[in-house]
Amino acid sequence: MTDPAPHSAQPTSAVRIEGPWTHRDVAANGARFHIAELGDGPLVLLLHGFPEFWWSWRHQLVALADAGFRAVAMDLRGVGGSDRTPRGYDPANLALDITGVVRSLGEPDAALVGHDLGGYLAWTAAVMRPKLVRRLVVSSMPHPRRWRSAMLSDFKQTAAGSYIWGFQRPWLPERQLVADDGALVGRLIRDWSGPRLTEFPDDQVIDAYRRAMCIPSTAHCAIEPYRWMIRSILRPDGIQFNRRMKRPVRVPTLHLHGSLDPVTRTRSAAGSGEYVEAPYRWRLFDGLGHFPHEEDPVAFSTELVNWLKDPEPDR
After folding, report:
1. pLDDT exceeds cutoff 80 at 8
2. pTM over 0.70
3. 3-state secondary structure string, the chain?
């Protein structure tokens, strides 16, 4: 089936998808960030992963708003409707983007919910700016120190994360991501999902993510954080970041993972609780892959809402 319109050189309006939410831009940490928000109540800030954008949280925006929360999904720096700056893609700066958005929204703190790269940054923000993080929810991503260790010492995780090693090449990964109107994005999402027992990902969903990646400069900006994560391992800035992340997370943490995630092995993610000095809950979704919040949005949202509403989340 051919697409009705080419994806190449999409405008940023392609990511302002209509729904019950409201779109607007906020300024934080020297850049402009696009957000979609819905509901009133305590702030829950949703952070997408690769190769997606804010829309990956479309189901949770509604579920959280219905449950009495102010749900906000932001586009990370360089992605979707947010600014594509030439620099600033190290995790410490990206985490300051996130906490800066919390301040710009006029809130004293937020529950951070991050998937994949968004989860990596949520871990980071909880360590760097603990007073701004009320609770932490991470999906499909180990603690940064655990991630680093697994990528360097676990052959199976190294192989599973082969795409990240491939990102270290100059220019070619960007070209591959946008070739054939972003066809690779669709293949990655299908390959990283669990068995096709649900509607995800259908052609409409894949088309939205392909269009978003074809907005000029997005592919380059989306890859830059992964380049930093690998290239900095032996550099002073990377060593300093890894040392900084030794500081424990001191907010209640919910860690979610798909049992069939082919990108981040369960063994890599499990054990991240050793870096949490607060109630920590591990939840494994049987039969789901790398995108549990989209593969089974009802189960994911139910787990998320119940935990956020629990006044005393157990260890």
Report:
1. no
2. yes
3. CCCCCCCCCCCHHHHCCCCCCEEEEEEECCEEEEEEEECCCCEEEEECCCCCCHHHHHHHHHHHHHCCCEEEEECCCCCCCCCCCCCCCCHHHHHHHHHHHHHHCCCCCEEEEEECHHHHHHHHHHHHCHHHEEEEEEECCCCHHHHHHHHHHCHHHHHHCHHHHHCCCCCHHHHHHHHHHHHHHHHHHHHHCCCCCCCCCCHHHHHHHHHHHCCCCHHHHHHHHHHHHHHCCCCHHHHHHHHHCCCCECCCEEEEEECCCCCCCHHHHCCHHHHECCCEEEEEECCCCCCHHHHCHHHHHHHHHHHHHCCCCCC
